[in-house]
TrEMBL record:
Residue ranges occupied by any Thiamin pyrophosphokinase catalytic domain in the UniProt entry: 1-82
Pfam assignment, any one: TPK_catalytic
Keyword Secreted: no
Protein name: Thiamin pyrophosphokinase catalytic domain-containing protein
Domain of life: Eukaryota
Biological process per Gene Ontology, one example term: thiamine diphosphate biosynthetic process
Organism: Aegilops tauschii subsp. strangulata
Amino acid sequence: ARLRVCADGGANRVFDGMPDLLPGEDPDEVRVRYKPDAIEGDMDSVRPEVKEYYSSLGTQIIDDSPDQDTTDLNKCISFITRNPPGPDNS
């Protein structure tokens, strides 16, 4: 994917689950390889250590907690619409 966006709780799933899918590889290397470009949502579900980990890798954290009228999925779709992936993103 040229643009990887997670809803806030989805970031936990990527952090925990990706290393399990590649058991022969170093978990930290897997997490770096599959890091999201952005985590979007109201930040009620992402664990603080996961948020800090990805933030330290340059993942954009978008706290959209004032907007409680749309789901985190809708917020992610809106983010992608506003930031379409370009050919230079990997």
